[in-house]
Amino acid sequence: MDKKLREALVGTMGHFWTSLQDFPESETGRPGHGSKVGPHYAVRTMKTAEEGWRLDHERQYPAAVVGATEQGGFLAYDIRDMPENSIFGGGATTPVKSYHARAIVVGIDPFDLASTDLLAISATFPGVIEWCGAKAVVAKTKKGSDGKPESATFELRKIHPVTAKLKRGASVEIGVPWKARGIDAEGFIGAAPLQFTVEYERAKNWYDLINPVANFQALLSLAYDNLVLAGEGTAVIEANANEDPSNKGKLWSSALMEVPRGVSEPAERRSWPSFYLATIGGMPGVARWIRLCAEYPRATYPLTNKYSIGTGTVEIEMINISVAIEYWVGSCKRNGRPKWTKSGGKNHALTLARHVGSEFATFVGDIDKWAELFWNRYNALKHQPGIKYDAYEMSYLMRTGRILLMCALLNRVSSTKSPTKSICSSHMHDSLGHRIRELLDSNPTLFEGW
The CATH number of 3-108 is which of 1.10.1240, 1.10.10, 2.40.10, 1.10.287? Predict the structure, then answer.
């Protein structure tokens, strides 16, 4: 991590403004302190006696907090809370206003900025380079006359980035930047993480840029079925007319770099992903996924929320996945795909299972039988919450429902059925496939009335 960014997270003193237009006026700047506190970054500033106290509904949240700190120029984004309190000591009372942010940028010069809007955000994701099919590090071993390894060389290769249009005036890019820090006592030190960038031709607000990066992170986490955290980040802020502006800074984002409460810690060693960049159609597929997340969050979020807020009980997850399937089939029906959307009647799980490809039928054994049981259990949970059920059975059904929804959405993204083939044949889901086929072979009794 960048030295200035690390120091700012530990704690920094400075003066802070809630508007770039007020910088660097001393009358509007407030002395204060910033540091990382739990999942957010807290900027605590001293209030003047004239400011008084404001109720929650009276507070206006700034787009960003601008700072002049020990580490230089500073910006805090994604302000989520503005608590106010007083500090007592030495016979005096000091009123304090705090700004709880989920991201900061350091290493910029506020004098060079035209606004706090952004042009680009980049984030690196270590340990997942194989997902994009790139090979930045090549190892060559030389053997001696006895056939045993005698020496080894490691070559770092430049990987040309690939880009795609996200929408008018915006693009996304995947690259593999590498860096080597020489040789220490234990050997060669180098890194070649996957890097994702979203860039706009015209400056946009924080959420326009961070959401595509977060959705890409969700796609990676979905591929590995495990939270994938970003290691480092940079942000490019809209600059004024200076010839060489200092408008590119180091980024820390809680959403990208911290494990959310309730979410499992990332695995130390990940298994192979259930699908790859090529599976979903390369960079155009990534762009389509990001647009899909923006347009149909009710379909994508039940798949990815386990990496942002964690999972609930099996009943909640079963209902969420089933509702998402129902919503997706309904959306496709409304958007000009009526033929296949009618194949399963009122059982939307059957409709979708018949559409995603034969590999899903092989995975569950019998799609008609699976869909009947799945929809029966979903309707029973929805209309009769007190019903008694087998938790293991419900878990297997819910998890296969997740796979069905994932296949359907990624098929749309890739414009092929390659994702279904890749996901259903992945070793990651071998055990689940075996369990669900065993369950269907046991002919479980359907709940009456559903």
Answer: 2.40.10
